[in-house]
Amino acid sequence: MPRADRPRRELAAALLAAAVATGLGACAPGAPAETDDADLPEGLTVAVQQGRLDAPQGRLVLHFENTGDPLTVTALEVRSPALEPGMRRDEPFELGADDALDIRLDLTGTVCDGDPAGIEIAVDVQSADGAEPSGVLVPEDPFGTMARIADADCLAESAAAVAAISMPERLRSEGSGEARRAWIDVRVEPVATGGGTMHLDGVSATTLLGNEEGLDWPLDLDVAAGDAPFTIALAVKPARCDAHALADDKRGTILPFTIATGDGREGRLDRPSGNALKADLYAYYAERCGLQQPAG
């Protein structure tokens, strides 16, 4: 083969291989195309957020808005280097002109070395004129939702590598009526081996509950892998006596621990009450405050 023809033939082969690979990728079943939003209908935008009930249930909210012509989103997929794959929805939903809709998806696991700012939403769309474009939307994150999710999950992972922090099954109490006193016995069980450490700074009061001797519960405890298990007795009282606060409660029985782990993470570690403990705390709140406990 002449030397002058060899580079041209090699270049042609490389271009053909690239074209085949691109075509195969574009035809992969069930995955929105790897494009930007240039082909999507004008006016379609999305933002990420969480409501106060979504965070404890491990859900992400995608807030879609459409200021253009009516359309249908036939499929979507959340892609983020800070989340494990698998956040996909194949159930279509419609967005009329000047319409908005919240779509909730269960969060996959957090990837702690991934960048939470690198999120994008791949969508398949059916336009009013029958076109079916696909593209990628870069969502707004006005409340820093992705960073907060990553920080909370990675802090919990670091803490679990040192010790399990567990709420009790039931409330411990004595006395009755307004003289009744109660304690939440939190169990701390360090892992058997390892070099991890953690500092428990304290527990913050909630909308319903506070420290019998003040507002928050200061702790200032150091924990290390291999330590003996121990119990923290949190003396608890109603933060205020408000029948409406009790009836409308959403997060009053979730205790926020302020912690720092030896690997440099710090922040709030939420520990929710189980159903039995939650019922005990509601009953205690009502009895201590002289309120009639709301049904349910």
Automatic annotation (TrEMBL):
Alphabetic keyword roster: Signal
Organism for this UniProt entry: Agromyces aurantiacus
Secretion signal span: 1-33
InterPro entries noted in UniProt: TAT_signal
Name this protein carries in UniProt: Lipoprotein
Keyword Signal included in the entry's annotation: yes
